[in-house]
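Could you please review the protein record set out just below?
***
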Amino acid sequence: MKIKFSHLVRSTCCVFAVVASAQLGHAQSGPFDNVLSVDVLPGWRAEGAEHIAGLRLRLAPGWKTYWRAPGDAGIPPHFDWSGSGNVKAVAPHWPVPEIFNQNGMRSIGYDGDVVIPLRITRHDLSDPIRLKAEVSLGVCEEICIPVQVSISATLPAHGGSDASIAGALRDRPISETEARVEAVTCTVAPSRDGISLTMTVTMPPISGREAAAIETSDPSVWVAEPDLQRIGNQLTATTDLVRNDAQPFALDRSGIRMTIFGDGQAVDIKGCSAG
């Protein structure tokens, strides 16, 4: 994999390298070589129109990459599958990430090796799947680099089991039912720049010190790191939501997603009722 980098750009939290291009090939020598390698794991055909594949990311020691909601100090990942053939939809399944704290800022992601399972829905059951994508990822050590990678692969008609993909599928956040969530409510109020959101979740504590990330269905809405308070079986998370253009907006409660993290585990909560 060849990844070329141009000039460095300084930010308030990190130093970023602007990516000029990335393509399959042999790496050239340079200060950021061997930081990240990306491989497609071909996987197997599942029931119906689905195929289970995987994206394996290998990071150099000391480097990390980011979860789908990377936190204030992270770079969000992006996948463009539009160049693929016989592909109706691709749904990444994110394993439970780690929480990192650096320079007083939080990020959420992975270090070392990580496999992201891909659940691919095809149009034609008899034709092969031609997977082609432009992938944008952030990787960070003392400097942060937004990397753009081109990947392509033809997936087998049947394939076989893959322990790496199967393990990543098992390493998932548990559901509300598994976590014994009884109720989730949301209270909203206007703030100076947007909306103040308070989520109250009734569920037993999970192991370790709890943390949380909140997402909305609108990618233009920035969500601050929530403040948490737990009293018995009630966890309260308070955060601020602001649109990128600072304009007023309506909040869709059904599109709110909250992930609660503990020691090596997470709970996935989707939607909330009015508080």
Notes: Residues 117 and 169 are 7 Å apart (CA to CA). The first strand starts at residue 2 and ends at 10. The longest helix spans residues 163-170.
